[in-house]
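Reopening: Putative baseplate assembly protein still failing for me.
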Amino acid sequence: MSCCSACGKHACACGCGAIAGTPLPLYNRPGLDALAYRVGRYADFRATMQADLSDAALPALAGLRTREADDPAMALLDAWAVGADVLSFYTERIANEAYLRTATERRSVLELARLVDYRLRPGVAASVYLAYTVEKDSPPVTIPAGARAQSVPAPGEQMQTFETAEPLEARCEWNALKPRLTRPQDITLDNVATLDALWIASTATGLKPNDRLLFLFGELPDGVPALRLVQSVEVQPQSGRSKLLLQPFGALQGQIVAAAKVALAAWSGATSLRDRIERLYRGLLLGGGDVGSVNRLLGSFGLEVGNLAGGPAAAQAFLLAVVKAFGGDGAVSPPPAGGFGALFGALTRQATLQPANSLRLQRSVAAALGQASDARPQLLLKFAPQLHDSFYRAWTSVPQGEPSPTLNGVYALRLTAPLFGYNAPRIMGLGLNDDPATKGTVPYVSKPDGDWDAIADGGEENDLVQLDNAYDGVQAGSFLLIQSGRYGPPVVAQARRVQVHPRSAYGISGKTTGIELVTPDADTSVWQAPSMSTLRATQVHAQSESLPLAELAIADEIGVLAADGGARSTGDSATRLTLDGAVDGLKAGRWVIVEGRRSDVPGTDAVSAAELVMLSAVEQGVDANLPGDAVHSTLVFADAGLAYRYARDTVSIHANVVRATHGESRREVLGSGSGAASMQAFVLKQPPLTWVSAASVDGVQSTLTLRVNDLQWHETRNLAFVGANDRHFVTATDDDGKTTVQFGDGVHGARLPTGVENVVATYRNGIGTPGNVRAGQVSLLATRPLGVKEVINPLRASGGAVAETRDQARGNVPLAVLALDRLVSVADYADFARSFGGVGKAVAVKLGGLVQVTIAGAADAPIDPTSDLYRNLLQALRRYGDPSLPVRLDVRELLALTVSAKVGLLPDFAWESVEPALRAALLDAFGFERRALAQSVYLSELVACMQAVRGVAWVDVDAFGSLDEATLLAGFGVGGDKQDDGVALMSHAAAADVATVPPRVPVRPARYDGGALRPAQLAYLAPNVPDTLLLQEATP
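Support: Ran it again with your exact input. Result attached.
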């Protein structure tokens, strides 16, 4: 017996006992994340059953008067209350799992999705471009499709396998092509007078200041020589060459040389005036920069104002140039503009979007079969296959440039000597003594009585030069320059024979070096026998030595936009790149990767990059501006070509490039077919099945190929739509990632034929973000064809995405019945992109005359414009959308949320237990999965989230903002218009005024910013950067 604690009467009859608590009222307002569906809990069921014991409508229970817990009847009621509590709990769970919004299990969402024919996306395999290296001197190697390469795992990672998606012809000469690094020195008759430097391929030239250099254009006697003097010699041991700085021409001489060329071009006939100007022009070139010789030359040619005034207009220009030669001015180009603000734009510039494959390359007949196209020599080899091994080698070794005017050579004139007899005493005779002091005693004295006759007394001959001494270094075939000062223009000649012999003439004896000059014919002389005054004034510069010219390093950058003029020395641009030689066999549509150190990043040369580009053509030719240039190949890139500029000497071009995707091939016997079995099913034993990106509605394509009795069966989406004899199957992936293959029942899809182990599957396994390896990480050859040496990925892998999560599917399943595989409205573009394999978020807006679609990868995985995912999504949007409406696809612009807050705790709570829970709640509520593109973040929702954590009493937010890439790179907004949220956060201010904390962080949609179209922004807390979320316990 027991008494009521309220009234003291017997508990079974007082009326103060338990009141029925079930069923509980059920009401669920719209928008809840969980349904309340329990009719009662343990206490409610126990109270209801106890109330029923006192119910007058149940007189049979009136005898059970006790309410003691240890009474067997009460124990039985307690047990039933426990059971009812368990049943109501699972009833509620089942009810929640039946609705897409409230389901907590991924499998529930998966099964619900199948009701509307939506399959949860299985993930996407990453794609990468591999560059193979072939052994030196190896013949061409064909790397088959499916060749495997593996990554070198970093700590905590696993090795990932990639397989080539298509066959590749690889050659050793394509391993690492180099751009043209040097060019012949541009020395022509037009610029020889203005050259300021000359490079010699030697470090032991033996030259010194004021030494003479003879430039010879063409062959004598018709060739044109020029003389320059050495100003200084700079030896460059590291490059094995010497730089000769040349003495500049005088202002007057340089102006007259230039003007004389204009005047010469005006006369077509050999008038006397033209002949005199031409002789003047050659004389000026041989002046070597001696301004004093100009006046003597002008006087010797009789060039006066009266001679030129009646000439043609060019002669007037010549005269004007002579007059103006005494003046001149110069201008200094301003330094290029620069600044730290340009750094961000350079670093964040995206690579240009190339064609998806060679089949989509837009080409023209003019480019494919043009005069410089490599197709022409390739066709020639088709007509003459016997030339295959020797044609390119022979063709590229022969200079192909215009032969005239060509520099015949540059010679150092090592010897300067006078003619024999230059120091001979004059002829002496007797004459009257004029000295008053001595003439009385010596009436006659010896006096000069005229000079020698060089021809009569010395026997001087035309075209025979006799030097004042023996010079063994003068050789037959060498060149010499004869300068007679004011007695005539300089003469350049070539020695036919050289003989050292004794000579007596002009009253003196000694050895002489006789040089017989080469003459054009027997009746023409190149040098007239001199008079004695000319002989005494003549200097001969001989003992010529040919100097090997070094090629000049090309300083122009690679990748300069054509709008900026391209490369000045080579004609290269962002779409053209000249190689250091001729390469045969490269064809349009081939992938190449250009790798090097960037030169377009202000203030630093430490940024390396690589770009994937497709060849649209290969040209073979010479530079018309470089006389004697050899054949070089020029790569022509598709579309916009290179996005970056590179230092030329750091560039390497990988041409053995092929696309590869993540996953390793497997061949597996699934089992035996049975004609008596309906809907046979087999499970693939090596999950996960690889799905690669495709331009389909789902955005993915399975790598599974299935054969039964060696006949291929085809996958279909649903067996309900296939016939009884159709060889089709369906696949289903469960929540554990295991894939089941199921066949038909003979009505919807054919049954499997009976056989022993006749069901064979070929597929690849491996998928998701582990395939997004870093650049250079894929370096292990699992498949090594004969001749292949190594492999590398110059670009990172991207596009890999994990299987669709529960929360992603919850939002994507409704989209399956919205877009319906067609894109009509702008919202359809966003819905279609969001349901595409590998895409986590998408938003679309119409800006001007185009639709701009911004995407973020699943789990914010990187999506590069070169990835299969990006290409296939863009292709699918264009295929299923309005063909007349342009579509632009961009990857989200990231904003990293920054929060700093002090937290007050409720009594008895420890910060060590509250802080992890608080951090987890914030990372969940403001993480990638919970935030939408262009969704602003409000301070109120931040505070509400923190206040909802158990143990938190109050919150004081010190800093609330965001950091974008531009702000980070530009020093947290220094010198720009970026907000200083990051600065406030990092300063850890001891006291912050709440009023200064912004009420929201604006997150902008796609828009035009400074004329450029910018993608939508996405703001969330970065879990891998803990310092962006600073939480501190508030202390008194």
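Residues 42-98 form one domain. If you still see a failure, please send the error message rather than a screenshot.
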